[in-house]
Write a structure and sequence with these properties.
single chain; about 260 residues; alpha/beta; 9 helices; about 40% helix
Amino acid sequence: MLDSGWHQGSSLLGQSSGQLRVLSVIPSGEVEDLHALWQACAALQAQGYPVMILDGLESETDQAPGLEDVLQGCSSTALPAHLTQSHAIASLPAARGLQELADWAQASGQPPLGQLYRHFRNHALLVVLAPAPLLGAVCKGVQQAPWLLVPTKRHSVVACYRALKQVFMDTGVMPQLLALRPAHTGLDPLLKSIAQCAHHHLHVEPLAQQIDPEHPRQLQRWALQCLEQGQVITAPEPAMLPASLFAPCATPSPAWNH
């Protein structure tokens, strides 16, 4: 008997045809959490949902071009999506591109994420992974809550609360707390501590959940959550589309897949 998650995935596949969804994630700083995120993306690609990760933790360079180079290009041709290897997730360095996109949006008054549609419309899910100050700047105007990945270190409560507050103040949307933990460790007390801080100081209690990414069914459901909870991005009005966000124009030719 098929797991119900696959039926949900089939439904989402029909709904997401021609749509781009953007999932915003504040990283925990732990390698294990990034690996788990990659696993969830691979699970989605195995079901036919091409994923692109904009890595705001890495800056674009001449040797490793990324989002900044895509935005500087004059062409409106979208980057291709490849599904031949579900485990090979496309990823772009994006720290400089996301910051310039946020600066442009602030100057123009236009939603930052909406300008990504023409470049990534061949993908089903765009994961924006960035520190809280940068994520808050590019997520203005969103309705779907970003995720804050909670680290395992017990002294991280204050840092997590500050990241949560930053994004909440910038966007008006309370991030969701997500702890990626083995099931045998039990419920992580950091979730409750951070939620209590937010409720006490901001008068809003964030949603919180804990997932074991090594458990196949939990990973499967989490992967579908990544898609379902993404912000739907549609094509902007022609008047909102600049020929290029930045000048001069460039033609990037990076190797996308990792």
